[in-house]
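User: Here's a chain of 584 residues. Predict its fold as C-alpha cells.
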Amino acid sequence: MHGWTGHILHINLTRHDYHVASLEPDLYHRFIGGKGLGGYFLRRAGNLDWNHPDMPICLFTGPLTATIAPTSGRLHLVSRSPLTGCVGDASVGGKLSTQLKRAGWDGVVITGKSPYPVGIEIREKEIRFIRCDHLRGKDTREVYRTVAPKKAGLACIGPAAENGVKFASITADNHHSAGRTGLGLSFAAKNLKYLLAEGSGKVRIKDLPGLKEAREEVIRLTAASPALMGQYGFTCLGTGAVYDLMDNRRMMPTDNFRATRFEPASKLNAAAFAAAYSPKKYGCKGCHILCKKIGTRNKPGAAMPEFETMSHFTALINSKDMDLVVEANDLCNRLGMDTISAAATLACRREITGADYTGRQVLSLLSDMAMDRGEGRNLKLGAAEYARRLGRPETAMAVKNLELPAYDPRGAYGMALAYALSTRGGCHLRAYPISHEIFRKPVATDRFSFSGKARIIKIAEDLNAVVDSLVACKFTFFAAGLEEYAKAFTAVTGIPSSAQDLLAAGERIYFNERIINHTYGYGADADDLPVRFFTEPGSGGNRISIPPLDRAAFLDTRKTYYHIRGLDTDGTPLPEKRKELGLD
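Assistant: Prediction complete.
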C-alpha cells in the first residue's frame, strides 16, 4: 500500500494484550482514515454505554500523515462521548500522529479496562503496558516531563479525567488538546493514563514529484491568505486574531449569551496579548502556519489561549482580566479540561447565582471541578446537567449537552444551523460557516439569511469530514481547497481522486455518524438550539441589528437539510440513502 501502512493495532486493556489487523483496501478507500476509520470501528461496537469496557477508543492517522503534505500532522480520536452520549471525536495536533504512523500503524483501537493505571508505549512494533500508579493525580505537564522522550509523541490525561469531569480533555505533547466531548474521561474509564508512540519508519509514496507539486500549490495559496499569513492573521496572532472580528460583527457571546457585545473587547484582543506576553510561534508537526503561541514574557512557557478561550474567559463570564485568561487556560490544560465547556459552565453558574467572579474565584472553581470537591461536584458535569440540577435548564447554552463555542448564532445563521445539526453537539468545526459568513471565503454569504444554507452546511460537513480523515488542518482551507488535497491524496496513495471523489467519501463518513447517533437514540428533537436564541435579541449597534432567530425559518431550513442529507422528517437516516452510500 501507499500512504497507509495497512496495519491497525487492536489493544485490549483488560488482558493487557494486542493483535494486529489489516482492513480490505476498499475500506481504506471508502473511509480514508482519521475520523472516517474511527467512525467505522465505532459503529461496529453497537449501542454500548460510553464507559462499557467494549466501547472502543479509536485513534487514527490519515494517508497524508508523516508525508510532506502541508498541515497533515494531526491525529483524530473517536469514541462515544461521556458528555453528550452521541458521537464524540476530536482532532489533536503535536507529533503523536506522525510518530504513530512512523512506528508502522494507521491507527489504534483500544477496548477493555485495565485493573490498575496503565500507560501504553508503542515503539515501532513493540507494544508495552507500563503500570503507572505513581502517575495517578499528576497533571499533564508532570506526566509529559516524567515519561516522554524528546522524539516521542504523547497523549495523556490529568486529574480532571480521573475525578469524573464530563468534559475532561486529552493533552498531546504538552501544548495540544483534544478538548471537546470529554474523551479524557473515556481514557480514565479504561484506567489509561497515557499513550506514547515513537517510530522511525517512512511512508511509501506513489508519486513524490506529484506530491511536491501539490504541496507547492497549498503553500502558495496559504501564503497569499491575509487571514492565515498576514500581519494580523493566524501565523502572527494565533486564532485569537478572530477576537476583533467577533466584536466588530456584534456576535461575541457575552454574559452567557444574553448579549453579543463586550465593551472592553478592544483592550483584550490578540494584539493586546502579544504586547503583554511576547509569544513565539509554535505549531503541529509539519505545519508552516504555526498558529500556536507560547509566551516568553510575564508567563514564560505558558501556551497563549485560543480564540474561544480568550472570548469565553472574558466576555462570556464578564471578566476584564487578561492574566486570568492565561492562568485559566494553563490550569485547564494541566488539569485536563476543555476550556470552552469549563468557561461556559461557569457562565451558566454566574447567570443562575447572579454573582460576578474574581480571578481567584474562577481559578478556585476550576480546581474544584477537577478535584471533585465543593461546588465542583456539580460543575464538573457540564452546563446542561448543572443547570438541570439547579432547576434552571434554560440557562445552559448547549446543543446535545455540548457547550457552545464563541460565535453567537444570532449573528451568523449558517452557524445557528451548524450548531443544531452537528453530530457531536454544539460545535463550530463540523461545517465552519464562519469561513464564508465572516471571512468571506471562498465566497461571501449573507450571514443574516437561511437562504441556501441547508445545502451549504451539508456540503461543508462532508468536506470537513474529509479534512478530518486525511487528517489535515481546517485552517488551511481558508486558502487551499479539496482540489489541491485531492492531488496530494492521489500522489501519495496512487488512487486517482478528484475533489468530488473525496466529497463522496466525506458524505459517507458523515452519514455513518448520523446512523450511529440514531442508534444511540438521537433524532430531530436533539437537532435544536436553546430557546434564548429564538426569543431574545443580541446587542445591536454600529448599524447592525441582531434580532432573535426566526424559529419558523430555522425549522423550515432544518427540514430542507434533512431532505438533502437523506433523512426523514424526524432526522432518521433513510434506508435508501444508507444503501446508496454502502452503509447497510
